Amino acid sequence: MKPLPLPKQKNLRADCAWVIYQILEQGKSSRECLERVQRRHNAKDNAWIQEMSLGVMRRLPLLQYWLRSLLDRPLKGNKKVIEHLILLGLYQLNFSRVSNHAAVGETVAAASYLNAAALKGLVNAVLRNFQRENLADKPVDDAIINSGLPKWLFKAIENAYGADAEQVRSETNAMAPIWLRVNKLQTSMEAFTKALDKAEVAYTLSESHADAVILTKREDITALPGFDKGHFAVQDGAAQLAAHYLKPQANERILDCCAAPGGKTGHIVESAPDTEYVLALDADATRLKRVEENMTRLKHIVDIKQGDAANPETWWDGIPFDRILLDAPCSATGVIRRHPDIRWLRKSNDIDNLAQLQRRILDTLWGLLKPGGTLLYATCSILPKENMAQIQQFLSDTPDATLSPILKTETLDKPGRQITPGEQQMDGFYYARLVKSLD
Ligand SMILES: C[S@@+](CC[C@H](N)C(=O)[O-])C[C@H]1O[C@@H](n2cnc3c(N)ncnc32)[C@H](O)[C@@H]1O
């Protein structure tokens, strides 16, 4: 599909339709396109644009089903974006608090901002027919459409989770809470929660995480008390387990591999401020800038390098590491509830390619680990090929690797801890801890 320029003049719904087009037709991430659009709106409108465009990602199969039943034939070429505008209209009518009057009227008007004034009649007719035919009240008897997921992912979850698949799918399509990690090197839990109370910020404490706070209302993170002073970082509860499972110690050399934007790097430093050396490595220079910004704000000192994990000769100084965190590039299927566009950006054949890349990096990093050293393998995936099956195969191919169980229930056939989305309010994540034998 042809690139579509950003509408010349700002308009809430036209800009939303542009974001949806960019994600679905151009394969761009929501973060990237929202950033462009949000430069020209105020905070309230930006929140609306984000809620609506990500909402469409969550409900896309049902919205498309309705669209197909209302539109005689698909729109093509530069008219395609009008389909996305109609999807947005259908989403507002069904899943938002926008009045029906505004959902139809304003969506029709937005067509002009997308250079398609001639199609206003069509947008109006489709949305009015939807209301007239009461499609919202006619149940759709199709589990895949109702799941909000692409067919390949629906099936992959079915195969992996059997009787629990429905629960995993529904949590995958739910809204994620915002977790904060208190930076205990700059404040204390007591002082931080006192400051939140004073600012009347609604939150709960996590039963499982001593350093975590879970916000119960959406907040502007940068306006929370202590943000500028580095008193906290935004980090999901599952991601907060990485430093806990890695167990960094004083005087050790630590590699945080695939580190950007540095969420786990910061927590490693907070867990063991007196390590000898922490290296945050990532292949992506742009994302590494965010590591620098985050470390500066949190007041942590680490070494930051750009490099391909599978090619250590370009970045490694030759001294082995005591501990390595490999937060491997993955399908991110465990964080779809947080980034609903991922389900449409990933394709089923990505999974085999990712599993091969993960294995290549794992094999390479194993050579950089001291005898007796620990490697924590992590992904934010819920698919066994990237997780249990990956580690099971690695253990069987690598004679000097042994499993250091995180859970008592782990076996060589079922290594590691698979967290599913929503478990104790956490994202979907996988961890396996491996130790290198001494001889
Ligand atoms: C899941 S994210 C890491 C999140 C990070 N650990 C955190 O906690 O904030 C995966 C990262 O892997 C990086 N990456 C992908 N392939 C890589 C490679 N071959 N070498 C190094 N980094 C890579 C990506 O740039 C991305 O930043």
UniProtKB/TrEMBL annotation:
* GO CC terms in record: cytosol
- Work out whether the entry's keyword set contains Phosphoprotein: no
Q: Which Gene3D superfamilies does this one have?
A: NusB-like (1.10.940.10), Sun protein, domain 3 (3.30.70.1170), Vaccinia Virus protein VP39 (3.40.50.150)
Residue ranges of domain SAM-dependent MTase RsmB/NOP-type in the record:
168-437
What are this entry's molecular-function GO terms? RNA binding; rRNA (cytosine-C5-)-methyltransferase activity
Provide the transmembrane region boundaries: none
Query: What are the catalytic residues?
Result: 380 (nucleophile)
Q: What's the domain of life for this entry?
A: Bacteria
Which BP terms from GO are recorded?
A: regulation of DNA-templated transcription; rRNA base methylation
Name the predominant localization. cytoplasm
The listed locations are: Cytoplasm
For this UniProt record, give its keywords in alphabetical order, as a comma-separated list.
Cytoplasm, Methyltransferase, RNA-binding, rRNA processing, S-adenosyl-L-methionine, Transferase
| Reactions mediated catalytically | cytidine(967) in 16S rRNA + S-adenosyl-L-methionine = 5-methylcytidine(967) in 16S rRNA + S-adenosyl-L-homocysteine + H(+)
Q: What is its EC number?
A: 2.1.1.176
The record ties this protein, via InterPro entries, to:
MeTrfase_RsmB-F_NOP2_cat, MeTrfase_RsmB-F_NOP2_dom, NusB-like_sf, NusB_RsmB_TIM44, RCMT, rRNA_ssu_MeTfrase_B, RsmB-like_ferredoxin, RsmB/NOL1/NOP2-like_CS
Which Pfam families has this protein been placed in?
A: Methyltr_RsmB-F, NusB, RsmF-B_ferredox
Q: Which residues bind S-adenosyl-L-methionine?
A: 258-264, 282, 308, 327
Query: Which of the seven top EC classes does this enzyme belong to?
Result: transferase
Q: What does this protein do?
A: Specifically methylates the cytosine at position 967 (m5C967) of 16S rRNA.
Could you say which protein family the record assigns here? Belongs to the class I-like SAM-binding methyltransferase superfamily. RsmB/NOP family.
The protein in question is named: 16S rRNA (cytosine(967)-C(5))-methyltransferase
